[in-house]
Model the fold of this input.
Amino acid sequence: MNTLVFDIETVPDVELGRSVFSLDDLTDADVAKVMRFKQKQVRGTDFLPLPQHRIVAISVVLRSDDDLHVFSVGDADSGEPELVQRFFDGLDRYVPELVSWNGSGFDLPVLHYRAMRHSITAQKYWDVGDDNREFRFNNYLGRFHWRHIDLMDVIAGYQMGARSSLEQVALLLGFPGKLGMSGARVWDKYQEGRIEDIRNYCETDVLNTYLVYLRFQLMRGVLDQKRHANELARLRDKLAAAQETHLQEFLAAWDAD
Done:
């Protein structure tokens, strides 16, 4: 089976914020401030409700039968509808095992809302056996199925109090972690027009997730020591051959640990 490890980056949907809070005369930056202030008043946190997130980057590691690819969907100029459509088109094409960190709690619900926002069809993703009988007992939606592995959820034994951040687990296992960037800085980068920086950051996040996934597969016996070492070597070779600075920096940080 193909494996698709994915991550998304989002910014406040200021268009929705203007509509919800009647903020037609404010700048994008001020609308986002109001949205976060309103959320903190209600929930005690400024982390926005999931429908108020707009996707600006989707990055993946795709491990197919004979190759490994690290990339961001679309390009820096791609709008949200194209990003979301391409993501679900990829699921239709490769029918992969999906792997995420907190994908069940954040990435996938956001993708659901944004797909509906843009009238996007994702038939394979929503199949629970009506089209393909194999999906009846192993589909993308079942929490305890393996077609989507939310590593944060699974490793924590589905216990809220046992969950950890990707950063902590990556560093625990000797992987590079965030390399100075974080999701909290995505909105600032977006306002500065630095979409490529966001996409690069998203790619390093998905690389950390892929490395954690390989260790998880070793732990559960899907990979033995030799195959695990071979997968790590394949990834090192892919990064070593890459020209992109952020991938070279990730490899250097990995080698330094």
